[in-house]
Design brief:
mainly alpha; 0% strand; single chain; 74% helix; 340 residues
Length: 340
């Protein structure tokens, strides 16, 4: 008698969507906590950026080469750029790579060396929808509806409660305000990347590969050259191998590759509006994690700012939910956008 065929185990779309949402929120929350914890260890912000790029490149560079080869075989024409590793054109690879691959990583990691993770939990995801909405209005001609404006006003109020306090103490010699400005600059950089992706209707996976390849071929050689001539102090040669490997895996594979894929899966099941609401959990969870795992204090201004930012994100997406407006491509790793 023929052997009975073994049943194939497959997860339901709902199970995949829920798992993707959980992984995305955990990775984004962990990014803030781990990056702040790393500031007290061996590596500098520029070292962390290198570890992030190298870790992601281990997976994304071969993936990019395979995609480009597939495109060339299917279409019979030369496609891709950057020596056949980026599936996007050179112009788009460079434009998206500057903002999403290099500037964001350098600015965000630098911020953690001045400001606590609790500030990052508010200012990074909180400033992102603000900058994105303003840039979308200026570059794409999007209209800022009254509902969206109200949400943005709540976000601005929350950011001012958190960052304004450190700015007031800037003349007293504190450095926290520097980190706050760096976090907001990192959010602005990612917002620029989001607009580039949306304006050109870029695929999330291909764009993530492109910005990683661009960073690998530009940032890493410049970093190595400056470190080699002594213009930049690199801590990588003296850092423990275990720490370098961990940062490559978590910051590169986890924060770039895994969260990029899971975020795309989450969007596919829940849609952009519900996904934005889910990622609104990140500020609160990361602020709580900073208190529990890093021993950071929780001031009333931080609690109030966190509440305002979270409310602003949720309030701002309600307009989209009511109108059921279709949303374009969302880049891997970006959260809290207003795409109404």
């Amino acid at each position: 008698m023929p052997a009975a065929a073994s049943p194939t185990f497959r997860l339901s779309p709902r199970a995949v969507g829920v798992a993707a949402a959980v992984i995305t929120v955990l990775v984004w929350t962990g990014f803030i906590i781990v990056a702040r914890a790393s500031a007290a260890r061996s590596l500098s912000p520029l070292d962390l950026a290198v570890a992030r790029i190298l870790g992601a490149s281990l997976i994304l560079v071969p993936w990019g080469a395979w995609l480009v080869a597939q495109q060339r075989r299917a279409e019979g024409t030369e496609r891709g750029s950057l020596f056949g590793f980026s599936p996007l054109s050179l112009r788009l690879s460079a434009l998206a790579g500057i903002f999403g691959g290099v500037a964001y990583a350098v600015l965000a990691y630098s911020g953690f060396f001045f400001a606590p993770a609790a500030h990052a939990s508010v200012l990074l995801p909180g400033s992102l929808p603000l900058w994105t909405a303003l840039l979308a209005a200026l570059v794409l001609g999007d209209r800022i509806t009254p509902m969206r404006a109200a949400g943005l006003a709540l976000i601005v109020a929350g950011d001012l409660l958190v960052g304004g306090r450190s700015l007031l103490h800037a003349f007293e010699g504190g450095d926290v305000w520097k980190g706050d400005l760096l976090f907001m600059s990192a959010a602005f950089s990612w917002a620029c990347y989001s607009i580039i992706v949306r304006r050109n209707a870029l695929d999330a996976v291909r764009t993530t590969i492109a910005i990683t390849v661009f960073a690998l071929l530009t940032y890493v050689p410049v970093y190595a050259l400056l470190a080699g001539v002594g213009a930049l102090h690199s801590r990588l040669p003296t850092a423990p191998w275990g720490e370098i490997a961990f940062q490559m895996v978590f910051q590169g594979v986890g924060s770039v590759v895994v969260s990029g894929i899971t975020f795309t899966k989450m969007i596919g099941y829940f849609g952009p509006v519900r996904s934005t609401m889910i990622t609104a959990l990140v500020p609160g969870l990361s602020a709580l994690g900073a208190v529990l795992f890093l021993g950071e204090p929780m001031h009333w201004t931080l609690i109030a700012g966190l509440a305002l930012v979270t409310a602003g994100i949720l309030f701002g997406v309600q307009r989209t939910a009511i109108k059921k407006v279709a949303v374009g491509a969302i880049p891997a790793g970006a959260g809290g956008r207003f795409d109404a």
